[in-house]
Hints:
Elements: H1 15-46, H2 52-59
Amino acid sequence: MLSYGGQEILIYPAQFLRVILEVVCEKFNKLANCGSYSSRQLYFKKGKIKSIFDLHRLMKDNPHFN
Length: 66
């Protein structure tokens, strides 16, 4: 299973770039949470682990994926 780690901010971007980075990181975090939740639910319901391609197909309608 993949694990995500955090790191202290080592760069000091301009204000507009910082806002963009925060939005992108928040969207990625929401998408990762949705993917984890969906794969867990599929495992509990069917007892199988879906491939990354199946999750991609499942998540394509998710608003965080677009």
